[in-house]
Amino acid sequence: MPSTSSKRKTEDESLEVKVEQSSSKKLKMSKRDESSDESSSSDSEVESKSKSIKKSSKSEEKKSEKKSSSSKEDKEEEVKEETKEDIVLSPTEWRKKHNVLIEGKSQPNPFQKFTDYEFPRMFQHIFQGFTAPTVIQGQSWPIILGGNDLVGLAATGSGKTLAFLLPALLKIISLPKRPSYGATPLVLVMAPTRELAQQIEEVCKTSIRGTSIRQLCAYGGLGKIDQSRILRNGVDIVIGTPGRLNDLLRKHHLSSVQYLVLDEADRMLDMGFMPQIESLIDQIPKERQTLMFSATWPKEVKLLASKFLKDPIKITVGSQELTGSINVTQHIVNIDDLSDLQSDDLIYDEINKILTADPTNTVIVFCNEKYKCDDFQHYLSTQKNVKSIVLHSGKDQRMRESGLKLFRDHRIRILIATDVAARGLDIPSVKAVFNYRLPGNIEDYVHRIGRTGRAGKTGDAWSYVTTQTPNLRDLVKILQRTNQKIPDFLEKFAVHSRQGISRYGGGGRGGRGGGRSWGNNRNGGGGGGGSWGNRNGGGGGGNWGNNRNGGGGGGSWGNRNGGGGGYGNNGGSNWGSGNGGSEGSW
Question: Which parts of the sequence are annotated with region: Disordered (predicted)?
Fold first, then answer.
């Protein structure tokens, strides 16, 4: 007859089998423990153990069911979200959602998805990593592919390079096969700076990978002989700055160009490239497609469009008012009571926080003068033992390119630059921009902070001001338009702030009324010009007047093209606008 001990052992083993079958975690009782405890265990202990294990098993089952239910709900939510994304809006709804204004003879429906057009397989790799076209791409592509001329007004970092480049590539492959040697360019792209030209070139190189399309990027600082040789061998696309293009293409035919792009037209005009632009366009057939992109829409850009574009369709993304990116948080810091060294320490502390937060973060520090760039680099090196790259016009092309490569590769994570780098740089890792001091005009401020927060990412912009900083009233307006926090001290400073150089003329854009102090007010008109001169201004020239095409009383340093001004315009008889005052002196 089996002993009591054996009976209990059998019961325990039976219980263990049942528990293994019911518990989700397969809880097991150790046989060694069972064996050692058999002599002291009672029936009540076994029963208690059984209840405890069963309770644990039920609890685990409930948790598992709850988790499964929660997971199911999450999946249902994901499906709902995907369905939401797949919903295609009507053209009107889409434009309203993205704040797009379209004007012209037709209003093609936007491409809301990459599948809205049958792009060739050879270019499908361009879309990798993107879920949908950017707003400027979505509305530009149907217009350009329809053969229309286009004016596109959009902020920097909006994806406009691909907006004009992809249709150009489609045009090239649609044409009959071209000779392998000596083909003249079909596409000409003009950009204001070598940095922007290089950026367009990089996008182009990536896009034409695996095709037979050939391109050349031409800008100052590189040998003309090598660039001429590449042109002679034959290219499909030429990208470059107007100055170098004008020198280079003078000896080469542009009679094959069918597709012309003026990128950042406002900046090119600001830099005085109008003669070179006109010279180049005069060599291009009138039967062409012309596209013009600009961040702003001043009078000069309008005149350029009316002169060289034929019945263009104009699209505006966002407000036409000058404004900063909504993806950038703007911080304004008062350094009125700080020494230069204390100010530098303050800037460095913030830079250090950003760089230590993420090893992939990079920052750009903008200075108004070349020597300030060099000084701040020296400070970082000697005081903080930190490496940085300096980019300004005093550096030769080789140094600029090697420095930018180090910055792009994150080998050196601080770039110090003048406004030569404010446009054209498109580096996703730039987490923050620092304005060592505010620039001379508010437009450059907007373009500077546009180097971060690109392609939907977020960024920060730090600016350091004193009571003597110009443009603070305009800065307050920029902050208001982007719903940024405005410090109390800034509003007080702004009341007494002088306005800086503005290319839009006296009394604001389009210029009515008197010019602003330190104005260099281009296109200003009306009464009383501001000191440092009204260019294209009328009425009462200011000190250092340089009133080109202006009228009224002359100022010291002479009113060029102004009535009664210097430059030998006795009484406004020569170059003047009539009936001027007394002769001015240089």
Answer: 1-86, 501-586
